[in-house]
Amino acid sequence: MNPVATACILDIRHDSVVDGAGLRSVVFFAGCPHHCPGCHNPESWHEENGRQIDVQAIIDELLDNPLTNVTLSGGEPFSQARAAKIIATACKKAGKDIWVFTGWTKEELLEREDPDELALLFTADTLVDGRFDQNQIDTTPSFRGSTNQRILSRPFS
Ligand code: SF4
Question: What is the pTM of this model?
Answer without folding.
Answer: 0.96
